[in-house]
Amino acid sequence: MARKIYDTAAETLADLRERGILRDGATVHVGGFGLCGIPEQLIIALRDTGVKELTCISNNAGVDDWGLGLLLQTRQIKKMVSSYVGENATFEKQFIDKDLEVEFNPQGTLAERIRAGGAGIPAFFTATGAGTLIAEGKETRQLALPAEQAAARQEGRDPRTREYVMETGLFADLALVKAHKADEAGNLVYNKTARNFNPMMAAAATFTVAEVDEIVPLGSIDADNVHTPGNYVDRVVQTKSEKRIEQRTTRE
C-alpha cells in the first residue's frame, strides 16, 4: 500500500507541483462551512507553495486573516466558486475592484454540483434558480418530476411541468478536506457539522489530501462508520486545529 500518512501539511503538498497536480491555474476544492471543518493547516501550506491563479471551490472564502482569506491576502486566487462570502472584507474589495472573479451558487446547488462531479455526472437539472439571474446563459427546460409523470399516466393527462436550469458537475485537480479521524488506509470520519462539503469534495478531485485531528490504527474504525472510504484519499496529515470562531456571541 502506498504511503498515505505524512508528518506535516507542507510535506503533503511538497511534490505535487512536479507531479503536475498542483500548478498555476489549478482548480482546488476546499472543504468547510464558515470556519467549521476547514483544512486550516493545508490552506497555509497551499499558500506557502506560491502557486497562483487558482480557482477555489468552497462554500465561502474564510475571513480576512484565516482560511481562504489568507490566499486572498496574497492574491493567489483568481476565481471563487462559492455560495456565501459575507464575512470577508478582502473578498469584497477584490470583487468590487474586479480583481477577483466570482461564480455564485445557491448553497444546495453548489453541494450537488460537487457531488455530481464525484459521481461522474457531467450535468443535471434543478428548479433552484430558474427564472432568476442564476439561470442567465444556462440551458433551461420544462420538465416534470418522475412522480408527476407517473401520476399523469395513471390519470390519462399530460404531466405538469416547471422550468429547470442545467448545472454542471464540479471536479477539481486537488481537494483539501478536514476530518476528525483517519486510519492508516485513509478512511475518514468527520465530526458533526464538519461533515458539510468535505465528503463530496474528497470524492470529486484527481488528488485528495485530508487534514485530521487523530490518526488511528487500521481496523480501529468500524466499516459502517466510515464517511469517506480511503480509496478516495491520497494523503493524510494530523494537525492541531485552532478552531477559530467567526462571530462570538455571549450573554451578559
Describe this entry's structure for a reader.
This protein folds into 2 domains: 5-109 and 169-238, Glutaconate Coenzyme A-transferase (3-Layer(aba) Sandwich); 124-167, no CATH class. It is an alpha/beta fold and 252 residues long. It contains 7 helices and 12 strands. The model has no long low-confidence stretch (mean pLDDT 94). The chain is globular and about 65 Å long. Strands 1, 2, 3, 4, 5, 9, 10, 11 and 12 form a 9-stranded mixed sheet that branches. Strands 6-8-7 form a 3-stranded antiparallel sheet.
Whole-number mean pLDDT: 94
N-to-C SSE string, H for helix and E for strand: EHEHEHEHEHEEHEEEHEE
How many strands appear in the DSSP assignment?
12
CATH class of the largest domain: Alpha Beta
* Inertia-based shape: globular
CATH architecture of the largest domain: 3-Layer(aba) Sandwich
Query: In which range does the helix fraction lie?
Result: 10-25%
User: What fold name goes in the CATH topology slot of the largest domain?
Assistant: Glutaconate Coenzyme A-transferase
Structural class: alpha/beta
Radius of gyration (Å): 20 Å
Number of domains: 2
Largest sheet: 9 strands, mixed
Q: Distance between the terminal alpha carbons, to the nearest Å?
A: 55 Å
* CATH superfamily caption of the largest domain: Glutaconate Coenzyme A-transferase
SSE topology sketch:
Layout: E1 5-6, H1 9-13, E2 27-30, H2 40-49, E3 54-57, H3 69-73, E4 77-82, H4 89-96, E5 101-104, H5 107-119, E6 123-126, E7 140-143, H6 146-155, E8 162-168, E9 172-183, E10 188-189, H7 198-202, E11 205-216, E12 235-238
Parallel strand pairs: 1-12, 2-3, 2-9, 3-4, 4-5, 9-11, 11-12
Antiparallel strand pairs: 6-8, 7-8, 9-10
